[in-house]
Amino acid sequence: GAVVSQHPSRVICKSGTSVKIECRSLDFQATTMFWYRQFPKQSLMLMATSNEGSKATYEQGVEKDKFLINHASLTLSTLTVTSAHPEDSSFYICSARSRVGQSGGIHFGNGTRLTVT
Amino acid sequence: AQSVTQLDSQVPVFEEAPVELRCNYSSSVSVYLFWYVQYPNQGLQLLLKYLSGSTLVKGINGFEAEFNKSQTSFHLRKPSVHISDTAEYFCAVRGETSGSRLTFGEGTQLTVNP
């Protein structure tokens, strides 16, 4: 089955530094990737949608300058949290939509636990 | 636009008991429906999905769900749960049109007790 690899699974960084999270589709081409944020005991909140080769579409209230998304190829999207602060600590999850089976072909990564100290 | 309501935030049950996790949705267009499971500190794993056809959908780990269009519901059921089913369960919906996004419910924490 389709596999989405997200790396790193956990990261701890100091306030003011930047952190990059990678999301790779291992065995399929993903024209669209989605980035979610999940607070403890809550649902997933869509942050942005990225399409290969074009700018990401951010949801209302998400700072595009703080959460930089790049979707440079059909198998890789990255989320960079710039100048991270403790309130950015959260669980970030990516998902990718495969070309084939558009009706249900959305696959999730295993998430990244970000802790900003 | 779509919305999803999971009626129970927490469902405690005993091992080998049946369980039903409720999900209702609203949408102005035809939709696809999904149930995902999330274990602690992990991503989401697809349990099952309804795209079309038979309204009773069978998924992995012995789960099944029934799409009821008139009641706009997609409840998840399992006749006999195991300790290992303890997890967070999310119902999700997306429109049939290309480019529609997934909308998630708030989640239901299923806790299976011995």
Could you explain how this protein is built, in words?
The complex is a heterodimer of chains A (117) and B (114). Chain A has 117 residues and is an all-beta fold. Chain A has no helices and 11 strands. In chain A, β4 (30-38) and β5 form a beta hairpin. Chain B is mainly β and 114 residues long. Chain B has a single domain (3-97), classed as Immunoglobulin-like. In chain B, the strands form 3 sheets. In chain B, strands 2, 5, 6, 10, 11 and 12 form a 6-stranded mixed sheet that branches. Chain B has a 4-stranded antiparallel sheet with strand order 3-9-8-7, with no helix packed on it. A two-stranded antiparallel sheet of chain B has the order 1-4. The radius of gyration of chain B is 14 Å and the shape is globular. Chains A and B meet through β5, β9 and β10 of A and β5 and β6 of B.
